[in-house]
Amino acid sequence: MTRSLLVALVDDEASVRKAIGRLLTAANMSVQAFATGQEFLDALPGRRPDCAVLDLHMPGLTGLAVQHALARAEIELPVVIITAYDETESREQCLAAGAAAYLLKPLDEKTLLDAIRRAVGQHFN
């Protein structure tokens, strides 16, 4: 039996965390939800997720800032960026910083799940 993927979900909107959390759980993934990028970074030493889904625009640390913090700490972690704003410069910066995907809200469920699975390189039947 394979263990389920552990996905860290970082979004400042509770409704988004709840909706995506339900989707990931229904897809047989485990979810750790965080309201801020700092909460997520502080929790990393405890249990390392297989993938992080980061909201780009959050108060405090943005998704891009979290990516940079991971890189500085030499933590290799697949990242999927989600955002309500399609900004070419932000997309380029996130992908250049190593994001596996840059997805627009409202999220297409299949696209998000596929992006996570691709990012981790692990496929479930």
Describe the structure in your own words.
This protein is of the alpha/beta class. It has a single domain, classed as Response regulator (Rossmann fold). It is built from 5 helices and 5 strands; from the N terminus they run βαβαβαβαβα. The protein has helices at residues 14-26, 37-43, 63-72, 88-96, 109-120, and strands at residues 6-10, 30-34, 51-55, 79-83, 101-104. The protein has a 5-stranded parallel β-sheet, sandwiched between helices. Helix 1 (14-26) links the parallel strand 1 (6-10) and strand 2 (30-34). The longest helix has 13 residues, at 14-26. It is globular, with a radius of gyration of 13 Å. The mean pLDDT is 93.
Summary keywords:
alpha/beta, 125 residues, Rossmann fold, 5 strands, globular, 5 helices, five-stranded parallel sheet, 41% helix
Task: Kindly summarize this structure in a few lines.
By secondary structure, the chain is an alpha/beta fold.
From the spread of the alpha carbons, the general shape counts as: globular
Count of runs of 4 or more consecutive helical residues: 5
CATH superfamily assignment?
Response regulator
CA(first)-CA(last) distance? 12 Å
Would you report the number of β strands? 5
Which fold does the CATH topology refer to? Rossmann fold
Strand order of the largest sheet: 2-1-3-4-5
Q: Which spans have pLDDT < 50 for at least 5 consecutive residues? A: none
Strand content: 15-25%
Count of separate structural domains: 1
CATH C-level category: Alpha Beta
Structural class: alpha/beta
| Major sheet description | 5 strands, parallel
Helix fraction bin: 40-55%
Question: What average pLDDT do the residues reach?
Answer: 93
Do you know the CATH architecture? 3-Layer(aba) Sandwich
Rg, rounded, reads 13 Å
Strand/helix succession: EHEHEHEHEH
